[in-house]
Amino acid sequence: MSSSFKSNDHAVQSIDAEGNFPISVEDMESAAKQAMPAPAFSYIASGAGGEDTARKNTDAFKKYSIIPRLLNDVSNLDTSITMLGRIYPNPFLLAPIGVLKLADEQGDLAVARAAANSNVPFIQSTVSSYSIENIAQAASGSSKWFQLYWAKDEEISFNMVKRAEDAGYEAIVLTIDTITLGYREKDLYHRFSPLAQGYGQGNFESDPVFLSKLEEIHSRTIVESIVDNINYPALDWEHVKELKRRTSLPILLKGILHPEDALRAIRYGVDGIIVSNHGGRQLDGVISSIDALPEIVKVVDGQIPILFDSGVRRGIDALKVLAFGADAVLLGRPYVYSLAAGGEKGVERFLANFLQDFQTSMMLSGVKNIEELRQMKIVNM
Ligand SMILES: Cc1cc2nc3c(=O)[nH]c(=O)nc-3n(C[C@H](O)[C@H](O)[C@H](O)COP(=O)(O)O)c2cc1C
Ligand SMILES: O=C(O)C(=O)c1ccccc1
């Protein structure tokens, strides 16, 4: 029960003496709320505007149902997928989430280690609390991707992409829905900006290109310069072309909601898309991610991988995403709550529970591998 996970001096203590940890995401969220100052918790949990889209993301899952097949010997489950020329043991990745030090002093380092120990790739944010090199070292040998917020001064972006390549990252995720930060009423009320407080500068304070530019503009602090750089409303399809010229890594676009944009991504030679509304944190009033998915799957027609996030809370949600024909699922807020509630061990617990929930759901749906799962019957009733 969440009530037994009271505020803690250090997050790891919220796994109590008996080794208990919250099971449901709802209880993890309560534990995280108790472990963090109110503005920080609210930053993570809330959405933009009236939070209608954030609410819809989770609600919309409930209206879809799976129709299971039975008597299909599911004693040997295979949860692996092949994507972008690699085999991944699970159809899950950890969504890029910035400023993770808000939840735990070890931030991304703890998450990257837990992800590595759980065989789940970690997507590192541009505005992570620790640097690409720190994280590569903390979780060496594991699968990692890099998420890019295009910088106004593009030499900074290209250098970060190069650093990710050098550190062995496997793909670049260009986030296209955050050309300016969403209008987040709760953060405005709390006057809370984690970037301004220095939680998101791991990749900048370690970047020689960024630092040399900073010296050119003496009046700017690191923080002012980061904020100025990642606000980039000029982002356009031409930048996608340019990014393709600059890296040999696969490029995925994160934040696709319109089928025409999915098709355009294919025309521009993009390697994959992530159907996402940023967890309802950007434009309130946009379609829920799961409602956007089926039409996109239809037009993309298997040409490139389709990944998905926003609203996945349980194994059955992930099952529905894959049943609609997506290739992989990104987990977001739940792992941040588990980090705040229990540090690195908390994230490991959450991932173990989530994978168990997912595998149980697969078995009870009568599918033994992800290809069978993607053919499963899903209805809106
Ligand atoms: C606190 C927080 C910070 C985030 N930071 C980033 C980021 O730096 N880059 C990015 O592409 N998405 C970021 N996201 C969005 C996530 O990648 C993902 O799209 C979203 O969390 C999915 O919704 P869900 O958490 O409700 O499942 C952030 C989300 C949260 C909650
Ligand atoms: O809060 C977010 O959703 C996000 O993407 C972000 C953007 C800038 C800094 C930190 C997080």
TrEMBL record:
InterPro entries per record: Aldolase_TIM, Alpha-hydoxy_acid_DH_FMN, FMN-dep_DH, FMN_HAD, FMN_hydac_DH_AS
Domain of life where this protein originates: Bacteria
Annotated SUPFAM superfamilies: FMN-linked oxidoreductases
Boundaries of every FMN hydroxy acid dehydrogenase domain copy: 17-381
Keyword Amino-acid biosynthesis: no
Gene3D superfamilies for this protein: Aldolase class I
Catalytic activity reported: (S)-lactate + O2 = pyruvate + H2O2
Family of this protein: Belongs to the FMN-dependent alpha-hydroxy acid dehydrogenase family.
UniProt-recorded name of the protein: L-lactate oxidase
